[in-house]
Please model this.
Amino acid sequence: MSAVDGSAALIPQPDDGEEARRAEAGRLKKKYDEEFVVFTEQSYHLAERILRAWCWNREALEDALHEAYLHGRVQWSKIRDYRDPIAWIITTARNKLLNEHDRRQREAVMPPEVLPVGTHSDLTDAWEAQETLRGWLQQLPARHAEVFQMSREGFSNQEIARILGLADNSVRSYKVAARQQLRQLAEEAGYTDSKSRRRLGSTRGHR
Model:
């Protein structure tokens, strides 16, 4: 036997089982990557609209969502089997926003100023209407605003309760309270009751 033959004999031969495991891991990674891309494309803007119901800072919101989706990709093999994977994203992003808010509150010398709400006598375009409503939502308790926005997006009471971890009765009471508070804000801003009711309608219809 030559020296070369002897060296070659010392190199461990590939394990068929190990190669199969690596191949399977590669296949699953590719599958999960493709699934997560589709999930992100389908859920991002919906999650953003829901969270914007109570978070005015677009930059902070985008950072929180970006981080939530990064964590979501790492955990996708687990959360892909959840009934509502978007609930995991929303909860993760919300927790980051709340933690960041608490940090800023601790560091702030003075409390942050409240953004003024526009008081135009007439709403003439859909964008302005949405921005005005968003400003009013900032003045509601976070849960009320979140439930109201999800309802506008077409989620049923049962879906909202499941995603946010609330009781059905709580969802109903939050929706009623939110509508009452928004109607009051609309009246204080000079809108007639008929106008405010029309502006607070669902964007996708009830389900």
In short: The chain is about 70% helix and 0% strand.
